[in-house]
Amino acid sequence: MEIGIVRPVSITNEMRTAYLSYAMSVIVSRALPDARDGLKPVQRRILYGMWDMGFRSNQPYKKSARIVGDVLGKMHPHGDSAVYDALARMAQPWSMRYPLIDGQGNFGSIDGDPPAAMRYTEARLAPIAEELLSEIDKDTVDFRDNFDGSYREPVVLPAILPNLLLNGASGIAVGMATNIPPHNLGELCDAISYLIDHPEATVEELMEIIPGPDFPTAGLILGTEGILAAYSTGRGQITLRAKTHIEEAGRGAYMIVVTELPYQVNKARLQERIAELVKDRKIEGIRDVRDESDRNGMRLVILLKQDAQPKKVLNALYKHTQMQTTFGINMLALVEHGRQPRVLTLKRLLQEYINHRQEVIRRRTEFDLARARERAHILEGLKIALDNLDAVIQTIRDSRTAESARNNLMRNFSLTERQAQAILELQLRRLAALERQKIEEEYREVIKLIAELEDILANPRKVLHLIKEDLSRLKEKYGDPRRTRIIPDVTGEVSDEDLIPDVRVMITLTDRGYIKRQLPDAYRTQRRGGRGIKGMLTREQDIVRHLLTCNSLDNLLFFTDRGKVYQIKAHEVPDSSRTAKGLPLVNLVSLEPGEQVTSMLAVREFDAEYLVMATVRGKIKRTQLREYSQVRSNGLIAIGLEEGDVLGWVRVSHGHEDILLTTARGQTLRFEQSEVRPMGRPATGVIGINLAEGDRVVSMDLAEEGADLLVVTARGIGKRTALSEYPLKGRATGGVITIKLRNETDEVAAAAVVREHSLLTFITTGGMVMRTSASEISRLGRATQGVTVVNVASGDRVAALSVEDPDENGNGNGAAPTLIDPMG
């Protein structure tokens, strides 16, 4: 008895090795598509099996069970359900943008119905699938042995069709997954052709040709940011929305009609989900849901109650159901001859197709060239025989056997064995004069073909031209219009703003970072000199730093002492009572430890031209507003700051308003905005005002025609002065006096551009809030002291000021307000 060798093995190493082997097998041989033909192994085996059996698009349908059995028996060492499921999916027009299999029978439905058993359905290759397989018999791709070595299967298909991006792919491997959306054939063909002509093309240039995915179920894509991210990095997230319209249902009611759904959404489950939400009272206003889809297309009807608002119900459906979904793009595919999984950009995916086609065309050309040279060789021998016909015939007649005749021909006429054999097989009818002429014409054509094929191999540009010709033919033969419509500049997320009223609100933020939202009418308007009412119970040594009146649907931009900006919606700030302290801002935005908000701004739409910023040390900067329209959750760099400087004020500008800078010691500088050139987000800006020793900027605002500059000190002394009294000076000068301070302990706390009808809201460090009209405050000259505006208690001081325009009723519901953020 032979005793085996016992070898100690670490179970950790053994498990790691075994698991890695399993993982790579799943990654390479099952779950991920090859970047060259866009197919997983099971799909490739099904298509090649049907091609090999002759189940072409011009042949009768064959039972699916026959196809599945042949694929299992020859190539795919897995279960029959895996093969049939893959076959059925390639025949479903709601799953594949361009179905590769032409199915007959029940292959399922968009409602989630499963396909009929394989013994009932029939299939054959779709015409477009043959574009993946044509040329496979010309040694264009490598073949390998099947699982038992009894059959040869292709490693990859020649794939004239750019199938990976065309039909997309999804799969979960071990430790990685892929989710590639489908695209439009015409756009793909044009983009590949453009990339061939412009190898240095950028993703942005390619996106002008391929604006985004094109799903088989159509629908809408909201926004292009996710598409750009996916095409640039290989990963991104896009928002898909159902296509709907509103129709009258009679008796004053309406109905919402859904005609297109997001990709991979089950219509029947959607209908059930809507019914559940109505039953649970999570969506109000829906009376009934019925499916009126037929062979002419989808029609899911949502009947509304008479008092329901269609837009509000529709927004609720987008928010709570799969009528709006997200599609996470992860363009992971196998590269390097199907051995390495990589996340690929759009350009890399297109280039992988081009590289594969170059290799296929090279191998095809070499195959055709070898056959042409072989035929030319034979024809040269036939020409020799025809030129020496009598001698050839005599040689054959004098030979005792066919073998001796072949050897005699080779010796007497310097022929090769193949040429001699071709002469022996020459039919007598080919000796006719006309047939001899055909041989000579064929020889000339073959020589011409050889020259063309050699030229292709010698000239890579010819190969690229052939790729473009193939793409042009594909587009003309199979191209169709785009189905999915892309709506630009829409975030797509249905947030609470679509479901809540758009009302005027007041936002307050303390020095310790407590923020709250309340209605402005919580504070009554008072006359000048009022003491105000209690606005917030603040923690010990906490003061209100920022006050802003805006609409509940406005975007709030928070600018910090570190030069960063964060963004939320105003309605996302918790609603609190007048005396509540609010919620820490860190619960709403990702502030870094120790980071402090120094300016707060409300923006309705990002359609104005610029943001103008000013720092405490007098730096000024101008940047285009759209650069701040999409602020990440962890913030963006808003301005580069020098050591010790702080960003204090930000204003929305159209680019022509004069800039006003006011200092704590009562100086104001007015200069033209054109003196500050537009800069990028990380820029530090330029000198705005020359500050005296110990002075600092306390306000920056933009001048308006016919307006006044309101100045208020920490002790509540203030006044209005016409802007016409402030002369234009050059940037980086000292400015002119704007108010005479009554004593050395007082200083300017805030300044703002106001009009006669402006509503002002003052808040003190102690939390007292007072609202008044600008008309209540005296208009005085620049060099005067001012009057009491806020009756500040001992030890208290003015901390913040908000300016807004009233509506027709005198309430603060007009234009977006101006925020003053004093640093004192």
UniProtKB/TrEMBL annotation:
A type II topoisomerase that negatively supercoils closed circular double-stranded (ds) DNA in an ATP-dependent manner to modulate DNA topology and maintain chromosomes in an underwound state. Negative supercoiling favors strand separation, and DNA replication, transcription, recombination and repair, all of which involve strand separation. Also able to catalyze the interconversion of other topological isomers of dsDNA rings, including catenanes and knotted rings. Type II topoisomerases break and join 2 DNA strands simultaneously in an ATP-dependent manner. It comes from the Bacteria. It is an enzyme of class 5 (isomerase). PANTHER family: DNA GYRASE SUBUNIT A, CHLOROPLASTIC_MITOCHONDRIAL, DNA GYRASE/TOPOISOMERASE SUBUNIT A. This is DNA gyrase subunit A. Keywords: ATP-binding, Coiled coil, Cytoplasm, DNA-binding, Isomerase, Nucleotide-binding, Topoisomerase. Residues 417-459 form a coiled coil. One of its GO terms (molecular function) is ATP binding.
